[in-house]
Amino acid sequence: MTRSRQPILAVGGIAAAAAALVLAAPNASAYVTSVSVSSGSAISLGSSKYGTNCGYTVTVNGSPNEYVWLYDSNSATFSPQQFSLGSGGSATSSWTPTSTGTHALQAWTYNGSQWAWVQVSTGINLGSACVVS
User: Fold this and answer.
1) Do 118 and 35 contact (CB within 8 A), yes or no?
2) 73-124: per-residue pLDDT in tens?
3) pTM of the prediction?
4) 3 partner at 20 to 30 Å CA-CA among 18, 81, 97, 118?
5) 15-70 per-position pLDDT tens digit
């Protein structure tokens, strides 16, 4: 007597496909909605309001308790660079660019990211203000 295994393989294949879809589906409730950079106390002498070696506040908004990583396409530091958005869905970090030019700031999560594009010129940090030329 010969048994056919086709029905068992078909059910197993459907179950595997369903499991793959569930695992690949993004979590619709977790995301970053915006990232912005305040110009703070910058005194602009040119077209840019951001200067090197001066600190600025980056604000990230999104899903409550979403974990976020910050990156800069150019040279800069963040403090902190990784953080949770907390129960209110918002958090801030200090960003200090160390080179001039265009900076693409990315707030990244496993569920996507948002960008802020910033033009940085030479800055003179006076402590309470930043002169940007």
Assistant:
1) no
2) 999 999 999 999 999 999 999 999 999 999 999 999 998 899 999 999 999 9
3) 0.76
4) 18
5) 444 444 444 444 445 699 999 999 888 888 888 899 999 999 999 999 999 999 99
What's the Cα-to-Cα distance from 124 to each of 34, 87, 93, 119, rounded to whole Å? 29, 37, 21, 16
Please give the Cα distance from 91 to 68 (Å, whole number): 9
Report whether 80 contacts 41 (CB < 8 A): no
How many residues are present in the chain?
A: 133
Residue with tokens 């265009």: 102
Report which residue type is found at 28: A
Q: Is 125 helix (H, G, I), strand (E, B) or coil?
A: strand
N- to C-terminal Cα separation, the chain: 88
Cα atoms in the 13 Å half-sphere on the side-chain side of 113 = 14
